[in-house]
Design goal:
The protein has about 100 residues and is an all-alpha fold. The chain is built from 5 helices and no strands. It has 2 domains: about 30 residues; about 55 residues, no CATH class.
Length: about 100
């Protein structure tokens, strides 16, 4: 944690970072070998979702918007339902109206 907190961006959000690390450790302990293999695959999630945008809009007959959790300020219009705080790698936060 000391090494992680040396990053000023992380230190600014120390409480959330600590909770996030605890959640990651819990999730890692539950992982199967297949889960670990899947998690090590490098993908650009923003690009992946952008490529799937029209399919998702057609499939669910609705407008689909993508926001990066790294760029969204909590409780702002860009984060309906304040869902960005639930986003994790390979687990996007999804808000449905």
């Amino acid at each position: 944690m000391n090494e992680i907190m040396a990053n000023p961006d992380v230190k600014q959000n120390a409480k959330e970072a600590s909770k996030y690390v605890q959640k990651l450790l819990t999730d890692i302990r539950k992982m199967t070998p297949q889960d670990i293999e899947r998690a090590t695959v490098k993908i650009n999630e923003d690009e992946y979702l952008a490529n799937a945008k029209s399919f998702i809009e057609t499939e669910f007959n609705t407008k689909f918007e993508i926001y990066s959790a790294d760029k969204v300020q909590p409780n702002r219009e860009e984060d309906p339902g304040n869902k960005a705080r639930f986003a994790m790698p390979l687990r996007p936060a999804i808000y449905v109206e």
